User: What shape does this take?
Amino acid sequence: MVPLSYYLVLSGILFACGVTGFLIKRNIISIFMSIELMLNGVNLSFVAFAAHWHALSGQIFVFFVMVVAAAEATVGLAIIIAVYRTRETLNVDQVNLLKL
Amino acid sequence: MLHLILFLVFGAICVAGAVNLLVQRHPINGALSLVVVMGSLAAEYLLLGAEFVAAVQVIVYAGAIMVLFVFVIMLLNAGVEERTTGSRVALLFGVPGMLIGSLLIAWVLISRSGTEAVAVGALPGPPRIMGWLLFHEFLLPFEVTSILVLIAIMGAVVLAAKPPSTAPTPRED
Amino acid sequence: MSIGTFILVSVIKIVIALFVLLTAVAYSVWLERKVVGHIQNRWGPTRVGPFGLLQPLADGVKFLFKEDLTPPHVYKPLYIAAPMIAVVFALTSIAVIPIGNWVKIGGLSIPLQITDVNISLLIVLGVTSLGVYGVALSGWSSNNKYSLLGGLRASAQMVSYEIALGLSLVGVLIMAGSFSLRDIVDAQGGRFLGFIPRWNIFQGQIVGFLIYLIAAYAETNRIPFDLPEAETELVAGYHTEYSAMKFAMFFMAEYANMITVACLATLLFLGGWRGPVFGPPILQALLPVFWFVAKVFVFMFIYIWVRGTLPRFRYDQLMAFGWKFLLPLAIANLMVTALIVALKS
Assistant: This one.
């Protein structure tokens, strides 16, 4: 039998990896993927709590998190494409001037 | 017992994929290890009895959102990222900081919580009940997220469209 | 049954299913070459064995002995992994497809399905959406502009038509009330008017069936939607740089996808293994399997017939068709089905 805290620790590890990736990566798409990793960690803890307290609302929340993640990924990637067109780079350190 | 072994196996694959995302310098490798993370998370959801959520995770997250990421990486021809001073500083402080933070949280969680276990397939969650909930209790969030998705589609189309070319037509001499 | 027996039975089922699927893939290639040949007023393979029946064997030996060349300019890890990804996901969805009723062997009741889960339809859809990776990654890792274009076009097409595919299935789901493929087939029992079987295609899902058919052609990159791998357009699209066994793996993946889609169509629209059953118990166990195989064969024949007959779409026509016509039609089908089911109950 797996205690609830094991699931929460796994979720915490995924979230921590996501935050670490967000801090250390310099490619904007990798930063985006770290955000998705954070959202996945949160999804896992939602489902774990839903199973623990026998409340199905946790799983419904996971749907909404996925839908919002999809919308955010779509718009974010479109912004990245627009930024790439003007700046010609994907390195966040080089996108540091408001006007070229 | 089998539950614990399966949890540990898929948990190890999750963590390995997440660490691989951090370590890899080419974004396409990162994207593929994120797909592996999502797949093993779907297996974890199955262990918790959330079968519909596991299927939706594979179809939507791993099968559509990550495909979008892979498209963009392929289109923009993202290369290997370089090491700059900023990224070295972030590595030096970020990684140990997050390690200490996550160990602290893990210690607090394991020591403070009881040993009540989550049974395999704990939730009686056939999709019928979830559909009922989605359309009765969570109707407003459902409608609002559908409008959100519509706005996201329009925004993406507008943002990523090619700007109209203003180059002068060449003269014919 | 005990866990040992369960594992043994499952392993036997997996081995048989894989063997049958791979043979079916090889012989669907033979069928295609014969049928397209006859449509084009020529014979097709006739020399190797009677009626060219050993042609797949000859092709297999050829693929094994061809030089497996890895060009130096490719991105090796993904170049080698992409065909494997395509084949693995194409062969995985056979795990939840039931081909017959429960059979009693030696006191055990075994369903003719490797595993029966509550959400088998969603698993098939999920595995189909993961199959896009094989195509996209092979196009990108070949480091070749034709492959990249072909890979991008193919994966954009597959992702677009997946939506219409999924929506066309929701009409069936509303009528059956369950995601499990076995339950959906069981809901198609009986006859009305005495002789018309109660298959979903006769119960008002004819529009759904047609949408599914068209979306399946686009999903498996077949004519009239095979621009990404047309030879006159893009050299060979995403599998330009592949030779020998890796190319054979893409081939196998495409035909295995076709067979999976055909199996799904028979289960959801044509009544699965339902058909006249008579005779002694051994015949009663085998006849449903025969009906299932016959219906899958009819669907594959329609696939190949369309291939020999229609020209291909241009890419922008293809995408416009998928998004502007097929998707609204699928949504309209869904709304009408939901309305009728709600008014009936």
Chains C and A do not touch (no CB pair under 8 Å).
